[in-house]
Amino acid sequence: MKIAFISDIHGNAVALEAVLADLRKKNVDEVFVLGDICFRGPEPKRSLEIIRALNTDVIKGNADEWVVRGIDEGEVPQESLPIMEKERNWAVAKLTGDQIDYLQDLPTELNLEFGNTKIHAFHATPNSLFDIVQPSSSDEILENALFIKDANIYIYGHIHKPYIRFLDGRCVINTGSVGLPFDGVARSSYVLIDLMADHVEASIVRVSYDVDKVIQQFTQSDYPNKDFMMDVLKKSCL
């Protein structure tokens, strides 16, 4: 059985479609979504429509929480707050009330069991949508922040930097980002887990998508921070 975890789409429906096409090509049986669906991309509505059409388990990310209730002081650098509030309002204006209610009602974690394999999945940490656990974090930080429940595999998103680490027989995986990678690779990222009879294999998969098309979407839109967002996308191409 093959399962996949995707996260941090950030309104990039072009990248999302490329990832889903790759999942179909690999004959993935189930896909799970770890949050940050709409905010900070040119197509918030279409991205959410695609995710909901999957009819799968979806959890909430910090950006989904921001869409629902706004950005509180202290959650982003103070100098970034005004423009990010404008971006949030732009995204909200593109969504329906039903879609915002959907985001509000999302759970914040998944507890999955496949035979002897237990998977705990969340957006940032089990106790927070906002805390940051980096790939270089110490073993102590990983254990204290992530190992809240008993599992074999812990999977999260949020940091947009995919990695796989092992600690005391447990596997920690970050999905990276479908729509806004931060590791300098201009390709979407997701996690593929192959559950076989006698062992489990986990891998990070990178998928190419039309970055120029997304940049053009920003160019043709009235997105309030499009120069910054286009610059982020262009830098991922370096």
Question: What does this 3D model show about the protein?
Answer:
With 238 residues, the chain is of the alpha/beta class. The chain has a single domain (2-235), classed as Metallo-dependent phosphatases (Purple Acid Phosphatase, chain A, domain 2, 4-Layer Sandwich). It has eight helices and nine strands. It has helices at 13-25, 44-53, 62-69, 81-94, 97-104, 139-146, 211-219, 226-235; strands at 2-6, 30-33, 109-114, 117-122, 153-156, 163-167, 170-174, 187-195, 200-208. The strands form two sheets. The protein has a five-stranded mixed sheet with strand order 3-4-5-7-6, with helices on one face. Strands 2-1-8-9 form a four-stranded mixed sheet. Helix 3 packs across helix 5 and helix 7 (211-219) packs antiparallel against helix 8. It is globular and about 50 Å long. The mean pLDDT is 96.
Largest sheet: 5 strands, mixed
What is the H level of CATH, i.e. the homologous superfamily?
Metallo-dependent phosphatases
* Class based on secondary structure composition and strand pairing: alpha/beta
Question: In DSSP terms, counting alpha (H) and pi (I) runs of 4 or more, how many helices?
Answer: 8
User: Which of globular, elongated, flat, extended, rod-shaped describes the shape?
Assistant: globular
The share of residues in extended strands comes to: 15-25%
Strand line-up across the major sheet: 3-4-5-7-6
The total strand number stands at 9
What is the overall pLDDT average? 96
CATH class: Alpha Beta
CATH fold annotation = Purple Acid Phosphatase, chain A, domain 2
Which range best describes the helical content: under 10%, 10-25%, 25-40%, 40-55%, 55-70% or over 70%? 25-40%
Provide the domain count. 1
Low-pLDDT stretches are none
Please give the radius of gyration in angstroms: 17 Å
